[in-house]
Amino acid sequence: MKKATHKSSAPILNKRTLEKDFSTLVPILKEGLRVLNVGCGAGAISKGIAKKVGKTGQVVGIDRNQALIEEGKVLFGGQRNLALIATELFAYEPVEKFDLIVSARVLQWLDNPQTALAKMKTWLKPNGQISILDYNHEALAWTPAPPKSMQIFYQAFLDWRSNLGLNNAIAEDLSSYFEKANFQQIEVIPANEIYNKGEALFLHKAGIWIDVAKVIGVKMMTEGFVTEALRLKAIAEHQHWIETEAEQMVMTLKEIRGTL
Ligand SMILES: C[S@@+](CC[C@H](N)C(=O)[O-])C[C@H]1O[C@@H](n2cnc3c(N)ncnc32)[C@H](O)[C@@H]1O
């Protein structure tokens, strides 16, 4: 009988794992913790967290994208200590507080990250801990330089984000946001993603900018940040580049932790 296959709507997000894509978190995951993952996507990383906290622990993943949450229920529904909820974070009101709140690659998409941190702080138990993982998009490094078309597209992407009030270098500013929110015991942990030619996931990970150009690029085009011709050229030339010349891509990330 033919095995049913699941066609993912978010291949980059759904291929993520705790160990590969939020490895710095692993040492603080203890059995029995009640954990909230804010902006969990379909729950790929949350599933890994749920395994670490074991049967006596619980993980709640929230995301405003209902389709991703529904997909996560199909993909990860077998993980019994994992609950996935479709909700905007600013509308979320948990009935029970958390030992640990984590959020990976989400605050980069908010124009009010300070308000989000203040909101999350109210969901922590006494002695609770928060961990935010995010990017400095301004420090992205490709070796050798990618095609000019992708360089122009990438700068247009940063400009489009800035215009929306999003912080392109949020990884560098999170510790000051934490201080302002009055978190204690603040720690900054380097968490760069480094992808080298020849590694199993290299084409997939280096191809993230092709996905960005295909999806976000359409919005950028309608909002006048890029032309259709440049977007299509960047997609084609970058695809060729990652399959031929590309040696390495380094994405700069930091994990920032704090306690109540
Ligand atoms: C780049 S993805 C990261 C997903 C996952 N945390 C990971 O590291 O793979 C950002 C996610 O945050 C979610 N998100 C963004 N803003 C949100 C908000 N205000 N409330 C809830 N979810 C939000 C998006 O729907 C998306 O799934």
Topology:
Layout lengths: L10 H4 L3 H4 L12 E5 L5 H10 L4 E6 L2 H11 L5 E5 L11 E7 L8 H9 L2 E20 L4 H16 L6 H11 L3 E7 L2 E4 L5 H5 L1 H15 L5 H16 L4 E12 L1
Explain this structure.
This protein is α/β, with parallel strands linked by helices and 260 residues long. Helices cover 39% and strands 25% of the residues. Helix 6 crosses helix 9. Residues 1-6 have low confidence and may be disordered. The site of S-adenosylmethionine has 16 residues, from loops.
Q: Give the distance, in angstroms, between the N- and C-terminal Cα atoms.
A: 54 Å
Backbone shape: globular
User: How much of the residues is beta strand, in percent?
Assistant: 25-35%
Task: Decide which structural class fits the backbone.
Answer: alpha/beta
Runs in which pLDDT lies below 50 for 5 or more consecutive residues are 1-6
Kindly state the percentage of residues in helix.
25-40%
Q: Please report the total strand number as a whole number.
A: 8
Overall radius of gyration:
19 Å
Describe the structure using short key phrases.
single chain; 260 residues; alpha/beta; 8-stranded mixed β-sheet; 10 helices; disordered N terminus; binds S-adenosylmethionine
Overview in brief:
With 260 residues, the chain is α/β, with parallel strands linked by helices. The protein contains ten helices and eight strands.
